[in-house]
Fold Carboxymethylenebutenolidase homolog.
Amino acid sequence: MANESRPCPCDIGDRFDYGGRGQEVQVEHIKAYVCKPSANTDKAVIVIHDIFGWQLPNTRYIADMLTTNGYIAICPDFFVGQEAWKPSDDRASFSDWLKTRDASKIDKEVDVVLKYLREQCGAKKIGVIGFCWGGAAVHHLMLKNPHLKTGVSLCGVIRFFEDRYSLLHPTFFIFGEKDDVIPLEQVTLLEEKLKQNCKADYEVKIYPGQTHGFVHRKREDINPQDKPFIEEGRKDMINWLNKYI
């Protein structure tokens, strides 16, 4: 995302050549990508995309990974038809673009998705994960939504909610040591404030040498030095979900 010294979003990283195992559905006023495991389950995870939108193959790859681990996964279009950011867009326009896509104003859409998961998919235990913009949205939901069991924020933009720490649910925060979008001093402050104010379980983990979005924006085959950390981040995410859902 952006900060004062860097008014534009990060690079998209490695775009996966991936089609997805799920299907696109209409959930009331929202389009969504849904993937279900072969065996029946009452566990589901909402996947909140980053600035590059719900159709990014990288994000669908992670949704399908959740499904192979036994979860119904749904990635809704939280921009609700508005254009996702494109690497070719004018960086000077990013602040204006972002003003109409507020990570704290997704509650209506989340309620619609929760209803769909319960009534159409039989889900009873539901968690949420999110990347970058979506990671900030996870932070927001963990502060206020009583219907979610847990959340994982992956490279979530701290500054959006930097004064709010009283989480309702267990939350796992994943950051990269070399993230030039989220400075380490912000991560340190987040951890200190959570320690002072948060009564729910939480964990803040920094992965050595990793840049922004490493869990879903890097391909192991062309970033061999990062492969252990990419795999560790994904495994940690799954383990957290398994623990609390």
In short: Confidence is low (pLDDT under 50) at residues 1-5.
